[in-house]
Amino acid sequence: MDYHSPASFAEASALAANATGITRFLAGGTDVLVQLRSELVTPDTLIDIKKIAGVRDIDQNADGSWTLGVAATGAEMSEHPELGRDWPGVVEAMDLIGSTQVQGRATLTGNLCNGSPAADSVPAMVAAGVTVTVTGPEGDREVAVEDIPTGPGKTSLAKGELISAVHIPARGDNGGDAYLRFIPRTEMDIAVVGVGVSLRLDGDTVSEARVSLGAVAPTVLLVEDCAKAIIGSALDEAALDALAAAASAACNPIDDKRGTIVFRTEVAGVLAKRAAKIAYARAKGEDV
Q1: DSSP characters for the chain?
Q2: Tally of CB atoms within 10 A around 36
Q3: Average pLDDT, the chain
Q4: What is the pTM of this model?
Q5: Neighbour count for residue 179 (Cβ, 10 Å)
């Protein structure tokens, strides 16, 4: 195995572009190192990006948006009070990944690039409208999070490309988000269904919304019909029922040992309603 520790993302991209065989990037390592030790994947080239300047930074920009380094950990996100106030759903989703020890290493970028349909942080990021900077041989490009995964264990990143920054938009006024999941145990399990909701209010009326579903299709879904179901409403029971119906209709799950198709489809609707209520309460400044 060839191990590299580049000083820049351009250098990391060039190393990956010229590598042969299996290449993996190392930020937190909670997926890569586990796969390596269990011999699921043995990389020919391992590129450690932790020494690149800024990879652990969590910065709020002048316009209120956020830029996160790709090696910023879940623990660092949870301990950042301003980020948690702006985007509690994103922070809470990341906080659900693994144990306290794992939280000290796990990253949003690793969770995204692992390509799991059941990744907890990804529906929350999609609902929040998060984008990432992708650095490659042709330079940088900005990509919506929902366009990165293409299937279980697969991403849209080309050879030589890697994510070099995470961008969370400005929360703005009268907005709120939430993420909920169902797991068979009380903690440290893989989501059977996950739902992320982000919305904005004009008075008591939902004026903007994004709803994302995880673990119910080959990739995390951004469901426009769910947003349409609640935009223009005060999130009354009729709107919530329409939201639940749209969420269930969007599901394309599988039967496995963690949940059946019927169960996942039903739970997606239930969690969509609950997450929307939490996001709505947060947008109104209420405690939840």
Answers
A1: -EEE--SSHHHHHHHHHH--S-EEEESS-TTHHHHHHTTS---SEEEE-TTSTTTT-EEE-TTS-EEE-TT-BHHHHHT-HHHHHH-HHHHHHHHTSS-HHHHTT-BHHHHHHTT-TT-SHHHHHHHHT-EEEEEETTEEEEEEGGGSEEETTEESPPTT-EEEEEEE----TTEEEEEEEE-SSSSS---SEEEEEEEEEETTEEEEEEEEEESSSSS-EE-HHHHHHHTTS---HHHHHHHHHHHHHH-----BTTB-HHHHHHHHHHHHHHHHHHHHHHHTT---
A2: 17
A3: 96
A4: 0.95
A5: 33
For 44-77, what is each residue's pLDDT tens digit? Answer: 999 999 999 999 999 999 999 999 999 999 999 9
Give, in order, the Cα–Cα distances in Å from 239 to each of 205, 208, 231, 242, 276: 11, 14, 9, 5, 10
Quick: pLDDT tens for 170-229. Answer: 999 999 999 999 998 877 889 999 999 999 999 999 999 999 999 999 999 999 999 999
